[in-house]
Write a structure and sequence with these properties.
- There is one protein chain.
- 46% of the residues lie in helices and 11% in strands.
- It has three domains: 156 residues, PH-domain like; 168 residues, Cyclin A, domain 1, CATH 1.10.472; 188 residues, no CATH class.
- The chain is an alpha+beta fold.
Length: 653
């Protein structure tokens, strides 16, 4: 009876000659062979002790069973590729370093420039057969690293398209080769993903490959950021003699890059978010502010004039007012303005939220609006006593009601105030006390302090209209009008952006069910208010001003989140799990590790590499890209002001 033939060995590539490196010196010279035996892949090194023919024959006829020998220097080895850990390439000198998972120590080999192409063939075979994937550097100098798939076997990829090939030149430039390898690997993975041919095995190192490819994206962003022209921080000479802003686009770019100095925020904020036009004059802003005050208190008077029976019979108002009462009591209780049940910040927030319900009935109140209002309140009323009473010095109050309407005092940066304004302080206060706001009496917020109450009532309209202006400027009303579908659409747009700039990262996220970004929905609604509550360089206003200063602010939230994902992607791949609960717990901590400057520069880079598909001319005509049909509008025209014009809101389809 004939004995069964031994398993046949198929050589995939060979590097010969190749010389082992021992403590910086040259060791034995031999041949490095990658081969396939039945269902496994093996890497074989054999010292060159015979003639070439004898040598190759010995390799071909070597037993398929791998001996459990030691990993000894200058000795032959034959190891299953599933037991290999990494393969690293070096430029000077041209060399390879191999490590194992089951043995300590490494084996290093050098080869001449004549074998550079043979080396590229080895790497190509490792990648195209799914044996190894590009890996991120473990150390600064580990630029060219491959990571082996522990369970590699024959036909990992059911089909590898012949039109996707690795283009290599023979100039021995390892950097150029590595760039070509990444391009080749990216095209291969995209094709396999499209055909649903990527391994379903959770241990397949797609996350490592994604990290490696994504690191090259971050490198491009760092290079782009280094070439961005630096713009000085906004300080003086903001207005001309008519009260118009000088070089508003330059100021916006400065605010985008540097943030806005806290002493200037209250004055520049209405211009940045669109309450005032940059070319408006002193007189036009003063007239507009009178109208805004009148319209605000007309709205609020409608709130106070609603009887309990009317509210009970109006289901939307009844539900909204009930939720407002509940949410206001839970708002930022760690802050003095809201810490006590008797704190006046609670009453101010309640008035603003109820007024917005009257102003925009189709949206009314959504949970989270209380969080968005708080930064505006604290911007214009920054100081509070421990009992929750706002502190508004006369000079600061006068600046609020005069300077942001007229102009920022030229010497304000030096904490000096305009003498003419100071002389008008008392008359301004007296005017507010005696005024009935053209709509009857307004219930006082603070009953036993007429002057303080007048100051608060003079400031509330600006808080309200700034809140509404920002929601319009960044198209947030669209999201609030249909939260679930809009969040899904934003997540889809973000995935599309990532597929353009870092496709393997996007594929990894989708295969792990992270592309829906459900764990970020609350941040979408709250505009990351709870995630960036701290003040300073990485604070909330830095984020919100960035959203509003972009050339297409209606797309800013999408690009902002995409930039965040790009900056923190590597941390996502190292989490112990990707369940929604894990992500919701881990992601806020991850956000604290990224820099606003990095996010800002990434957004600008994304605008160039993956520009918005279309400029939205009307916030309420934005297309739903899932079905390419315009979002339906309710046809309900709610409160119309001279400032906003006729307004409609979106309708859930």
């Amino acid at each position: 009876m004939t004995a069964p033939l031994p398993p046949r060995r198929f050589q995939l590539c060979t590097i010969e000659p190749i010389t082992e490196i021992v403590n910086g010196s040259l060791g034995v010279t031999g041949t490095l062979v990658l081969s396939r035996v039945e269902e496994s892949y093996q890497l074989h090194f054999s010292p060159d002790e015979r003639t070439l023919t004898q040598h190759i024959t010995a390799i071909d006829n070597s037993p398929s069973k791998i001996p459990d020998g030691k990993w000894k220097i200058n000795k032959k080895f034959r190891v299953d590729c599933g037991k290999l850990s990494t393969l690293q390439l070096h430029q000077e000198p041209l060399s390879i370093t191999i490590s194992r998972t089951d043995r300590s120590g490494v084996r290093s080999f050098t080869f001449g420039s004549s074998e550079f192409i043979s080396m590229t063939e080895l790497v190509e075979q490792l990648v195209i057969n799914g044996i190894a994937v590009p890996a991120p550097p473990e150390q600064k100098n580990d630029k060219y690293l491959l990571y082996f798939y522990r369970r590699c076997h024959r036909n990992i990829y059911s089909y590898t398209p012949p039109h996707i090939q690795l283009s290599v030149t023979s100039n021995n430039d390892l950097e150029a080769f590595w760039a070509a390898l990444h391009q080749f690997f990216t095209s291969l993975i995209i094709h396999l993903d499209t055909c649903d041919s990527l391994p379903k095995d959770p241990s397949y190192p797609l996350n490592i490959a994604a990290e490696a490819c994504h690191e090259r994206v971050l490198s491009q962003i760092r290079e782009y950021s280094a070439n961005i022209s630096k713009i000085p921080v906004v300080e003086n000479e903001i207005f001309n003699e008519k009260g118009q802003i000088n070089n508003f686009e330059v100021i916006k770019k400065s605010i985008y890059q540097n943030g806005c100095p806290s002493k200037l925020l209250t004055y520049l904020l209405p211009f940045v978010i669109g309450v005032f036009k940059p070319d408006s004059t002193f007189e036009s802003r003063a007239e507009l502010m009178k109208e805004l005050k009148t319209e605000f208190y007309q709205l609020y008077s409608q709130c106070t004039s609603l009887k309990a029976s009317q509210i009970e019979n109006h289901k939307k108002f009844l539900n909204a007012f009930r939720v407002i009462k509940h949410d206001v009591l839970r708002t930022d209780r760690q802050l003095p303005a809201f810490s006590k049940s008797t704190a006046f910040g609670l009453e101010i927030l309640t008035r603003l939220l109820k007024t917005y319900c009257i102003f925009n009935p189709p949206i009314g109140y959504l949970q989270g609006m209380n969080d968005i209002f708080v930064p505006f309140i604290l911007t214009y009323l920054p100081e509070w006593t421990p009992e929750g009473v706002p502190i508004i010095p006369d000079d600061i109050y006068s600046l609020y009601i005069s300077s942001y309407i007229l102009s920022l005092p030229k010497n304000h940066a030096n904490n000096e105030t305009n003498n003419e304004i100071n002389n008008d302080i008392k008359s301004n206060i007296d005017e507010q006390i005696n005024k009935k706001f053209l709509c009857g009496d307004v219930p006082p917020i603070i009953k036993d302090d007429e002057q303080l109450n007048a100051k608060i009532e003079a400031i509330l309209p600006m808080i309200f209209w700034c809140f509404d202006a920002m929601l319009r400027n960044i198209n947030h009303l669209c999201l609030l009008g249909d939260v679930t579908s809009r969040c899904k659409l934003i997540a889809k747009e973000i995935h599309s952006i990532l597929m353009q700039v870092s496709p393997i990262a996007a594929i990894w996220m989708r295969r792990n069910s992270l592309d829906s970004l459900i764990w970020l929905y609350s941040d979408f609604v709250l505009l990351f208010k709870r995630s960036f509550q701290n003040s300073g360089k990485n604070g909330l206003w830095r984020v919100w001003l960035q959203l509003n200063c972009l050339s297409q602010p209606e797309k800013s939230l999408t690009y902002f989140v995409a930039a965040i994902i790009i900056q923190c992607f590597r941390q996502l791949t190292t989490l112990p799990g990707v369940q929604i609960t894990t992500m919701m717990e881990a992601f806020p901590k991850i956000l604290q590790t990224i820099e606003s400057d990095d996010v800002a520069n990434t957004i600008l880079w994304l605008y160039e590499k993956a520009p918005p598909k279309e400029k939205i001319e009307n916030n309420y005509h934005m297309k739903n890209e899932e079905n390419e049909k315009p979002v339906k509008r309710s046809g309900f025209k709610y409160f119309e002001t001279k400032w906003t014009g006729p307004c409609e809101t979106v309708q859930n389809s």
